[in-house]
Design brief:
This protein is α/β, with parallel strands linked by helices. It has 10 helices and 10 strands. It is 38% helix and 27% strand.
Length: 234
């Protein structure tokens, strides 16, 4: 059984419809990528899974219908979210920001802190540094770490490489791959960076203008003319 099942999902901002009948399945222990251009609805899809938008359709997580749950309820159920916009507290230190994410998993604070610091040693070295003074890459690491402090079964990661150097992108990719391989964590990544996503994901969905245009493995999609033209310029 899929860990996450999205069926005919439509999302709205007022009267404007941002998602059009999106359906997708995410199997346990996999990395799933969602690629598409800016404005395609990628962030809206993750927000909708979390219960942050007005939707119709169905979202099921671990067999339960979570379509009408609040974000707080979904976090408690086991969904962690590292949004592209970060939403960190800029005048709080790294460790303080991480501990904000621990409120649903207070019995595993030390264990989860060790996981985060093992993944991102620079954060352990700079525990007291205010996140507002950090680089974009370090803030992305804090955002990922805060989501991991909730002990998620499913991790949603929105645009993790936006504005980051190639070196930091490789570090983020290595951390996500390690999480998946060593802990079995199920991960959904949204990205405009197609190469980043194809290097990580076992299955990829192409989202354009709020609709799933294509889906398949990285190798399958590389052979699609539309992918070649739209994302590789050939």
């Amino acid at each position: 059984m899929a860990l996450l099942e999205v069926s005919n999902l439509e999302a709205f901002y007022g009267k404007a419809r941002a998602l059009h009948g999106v359906s997708m399945d995410v199997e346990p222990g996999t990395i799933v990528g969602i690629i598409g251009p800016n404005g395609a609805g990628k962030s809206t899809l993750l927000d909708s899974i979390m219960g942050m938008t007005t939707t119709t359709g169905t979202v099921r997580f671990d067999g339960a219908d979570i379509s009408s749950r609040t974000p707080a309820q979904n976090v408690k159920a086991g969904i962690g979210y590292a949004p592209e916009r970060g939403n960190l507290f800029p005048f709080m230190g790294v460790k303080e920001n991480l501990l904000v994410g621990a409120y649903t998993s207070r019995d595993k604070v030390d264990e989860n802190l060790r996981l985060v610091f093992d993944l991102f040693p620079v954060l352990e070295q700079r525990q007291a540094q205010e996140t507002g003074t950090q680089s974009g890459g370090e803030r992305q690491m804090v955002s990922l770490g805060r989501a991991l402090m909730t002990s998620p079964a499913l991790l949603l990661v929105d645009e993790p490489t936006i504005g980051l150097s190639p070196k930091v992108c490789l570090d983020i990719a290595a951390a996500l791959r390690r999480l998946n391989e060593q802990t079995g964590l199920t991960i959904i990544i949204t990205e405009q960076n197609v190469n980043f996503t194809m290097s990580l994901a076992q299955h990829i969905y192409v989202l354009e203008t709020g609709e799933i245009r294509l889906s398949g493995t990285a190798e399958e999609l590389k052979g699609e003319d539309h992918i070649k033209e739209a994302y590789f310029g050939s």
